[in-house]
Design a protein that fits this description.
By secondary structure, the chain is mainly β. The chain has a single domain, classed as Sandwich (Mutm (Fpg) Protein, Chain: A, domain 2). 10% of the residues lie in helices and 49% in strands. Strands 3-5-1-11-10-9 form a 6-stranded mixed β-sheet, with no helix packed on it. A 5-stranded antiparallel β-sheet has the order 4-2-6-7-8. A hairpin with a 5-residue loop joins β7 and β8. The radius of gyration is 18 Å and the shape is globular. The mean pLDDT is 88.
Length: 162
């Protein structure tokens, strides 16, 4: 067996580190969330998971994202968008193959772009953080968020009417 073949054989038995994201959204508002879209820099919704078209008040769905096979080393990064009253709320997430896990939330730009939210998401030192934004006149949402380190970025986003 050649050195190249030995290296390939050795590498084939080394398990790949999983790069997954588990996103739980708690809708503690009196507003229905309607799916507007998704975007992925890498990864996809896992086969055993479903992205809800509607998240009603009181609902707590969990969505799982994983790498696209055969691109195991690419990690998972993207966002989901939900319409709430007059605004599109973007929840961005990332579990890259290199770097820190992240989560972010905010209002999409008028043109529907959510890249600024994706660009500015952070790990917040893996501690709970809060973002506030208006989804209509006199309607403020407080989003309490948290993400975790490791092979599975477990993200929690709790939306509360203020």
């Amino acid at each position: 067996m050649s050195n190249t073949e030995k290296t390939l054989e050795r590498n084939s038995i080394i398990p790949a580190v999983p790069h997954n994201v588990t996103l739980t959204i708690l809708n503690e508002t009196d507003t229905i969330m309607k799916l507007e879209g998704t975007w992925f820099d890498s990864g996809e919704i896992k086969e055993d998971s479903e992205l809800p078209a509607i998240i009603k008040s009181g609902d707590t769905p969990t969505i799982k994202f994983g790498v696209k096979k055969p691109h195991i080393a690419a990690g998972v990064s993207g966002y989901v968008q939900y319409k709430m009253k007059d605004q599109v709320v973007t929840i961005a997430f990332s579990n890259p193959s290199v770097g820190t896990n992240k989560v972010g939330i905010g209002i999409s730009d008028k043109d529907g772009s959510s890249n600024k939210i994706w660009d500015k998401m952070s790990n917040h030192n893996y501690k709970k953080f809060n973002e506030q934004f208006n989804i209509a006149s006199n309607y403020t949402i407080s989003a309490e968020c948290l993400c975790t380190s490791g092979g599975n970025n477990t993200c929690y986003v709790d939306l509360i009417k203020k």
